[in-house]
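SUBJECT: A protein chain and its fold
Encoding: whole-number codes for local backbone shapes
RECORD BEGINS BELOW THIS LINE
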Amino acid sequence: AIVDFGLDRRHEPVLAIGGGVLMDVVSLLSSLYKRRVPFIRIPTTFLGIVDASIGVKTGVNFGKNKNMLGTYTPPKAVYIDTAFLRTVPALHIRNGLCEIMKMALMRDNELFALLEDFGERLIETRFGHYTGGVGATMPAAELSQVWEAGQEVIRRAIHTMLEELSYNLTEQNLYRCVDFGHIWGPTVELSSSPPLPHGFAVNMDMAYCAYLSYTKGTMSWEEAQRVWDCMDRLGLPRKHPYFIDPARMHPTLMKMQKTQAGMHRVPVPLGIGQYTFRTDITADELREVCQQYGQVLIMAPDAPTRSPTASLRSGSTLAESGSAGSSPSSRLATPAAGGLGATHLVKMGARVHATGTGAEESAQQPDTLMEVIADYMRKIVKATNIDDVKTWAKQALELVAGMEPHIEASSTQVSDVARKCHDAAFAENWAELYAKGVTKKRLKKEMVTNILEGKVLNLFCRMVGARRVLEIGMFTGFATISMAEALPNDGTVITLEDEPYLMGLTKKHFQESPHGQRIRIELGDAETNLKRLKANGPEDQFDFVFIDADIQKYGVYFDTIMKRGLLKPGGVIALDNSLLKGHVYTNLKQAKEGLARTKASDLADAAAIRRFNVRVSSDPRFECVLLPIRNGLTLLRHKPQAFSPNLRASLDVPLAMFTTMPVPAAPQTQPQIQQVPTATLANNNSSTDAGATHDAIKRLYYQLLLQHAQCSYKLYPHPENPAPGESPLVCGPGAMPLLVAGMGMGVTALAGAG
């Protein structure tokens, strides 16, 4: 059809209107014909909308191998209209939800919460577009709320996917969280008879990986159960005999190693909304995990009401599961809590290892300062003589208490203005200011950056040649002025602070400094102000970012910085409090139960920091190091090659998402795409004759091409969106596209459809 049509490969695009299979076939064909002709994707199925239309990969199956033949070729544009979902069967809505579940578990806990709250109603109402069935009895306000939630679910799923793909379009980096569910899932999909829907196979893989993560302590039993409960409520299947058969699973893992540079890289959830990679899964581990998984999940008609056996879990106890003797195999069990107590996670490259704090002492003599202190502590624990305890405790105390004063005295002294900013934290009565309502939050002197850390920040700004610095959380301004002093005359520190009192307190000190004019304070909620910052070009990006604010929002700040392109390639992010009094690697459960002075808020912050530390240390975009300075300082260097401007310029994919708002109170005024019968295009079981479908496709095309400004579409902003009246497609004068559209179970090429 393309040959007969005489397609102009430079100006005339091929329109692929249909589901994922059609778009994959058309995309591959377009990438091969005359070494590439432009093509545009218009998905009409849910899996097509949230998965197949996103990214630059094209591919078809070959034999029994999934996507064996393919290329990396971006479409000219992707047009997404969620009104197509009105006639998509519920089975296929569930199929697409599996891919959304993938991004929720890997990247977005808020997306997961939306699935929990609205998932069942989204299926029943086809994302708020279908007012038959349950939708007919649903109040108009509720249906409108479901529609809005559906738009947010799709938006978050697509944009999270694009964020993951954008820096690694051709998969040069093999650590890809979007492969979650795609390690064993594709094999299950194609080996089943009849073949499983793609999303269902992916979901079974994800359910298994959640249990695999639980056995290593990187996911709590409560989190895993929450994931499975959500899957069950949405009707996403998770049971398959393949996942209790290690003889079939292990060869799949070995096959993956052959295609991925001799190493398997299995994405697994780190709680909900974060991830890490397993590269050390053995045949023995698979065998035992499959046995446990089969007993607990596959063979049981109902989900267990308590945590199953923890024999595989690094350092878990039978007591934790609530039933002594419930484990069929306890040979690996050792005392701990939640898989993290007496054992803790140590990140090495992309591997998560469990190391016991009670390991046998090395015959080697202690060498470093921390080793000497630890040696004294071991002696104290084992001591039987109180005099020995006092002696060793005194020696350990001298080492610990004298370290920071000695380091500060041995370093270059800070400026007088910087010292005033530092000392201001100790001069104020923060409790009284809070009681009088002067400050919105309960501040305390311990929040100030210490002298050593201020010097380190100053030095790092000089080392990276920083000109623009972003600070999230200013407090009394010591870190702010320390970084400002390291900048050139045209440098700028933008600091985000939400306490008006602190703005007045620091302003007088900044005015005393010749470097104070480089500081710009943005008052207000840090998250809101961060979203207002724009990077229109390299000159607006930041060379150095220092985050010292709400620990629970570190992930939000980090994601916003990266989503908005605020960090320059090669730039550095520094995060304070990444050790948080040691709670991030010690036994949190014992601390909570045994140490009255350990606050619940500290434990919650420690859990958040621990998840964040593991997440960023496995992020392929960054080089990461955690330094034991003050309360822990994490440095993240953005790899320059991760965001090559040339790569982005040549491979960016325009994405326009549009939809119509339903009017649920009047079924006869169901949302239409103006005169286009979307049911004809979206329903694979339609028996409509070809002539009517041809007319529908032509009308749809003309709306896209000629009536863009008059449509009732809601357009999500994109810099390449055309102005009203302009063509949204890139065509030469007089050029017409070739339309390829789904027709029942087949494909029809409509040459000269215009």
Remarks:
- Residues 140-166 form the longest helix (27 residues).
- Residues 103 and 160 are 7 Å apart (CA to CA).
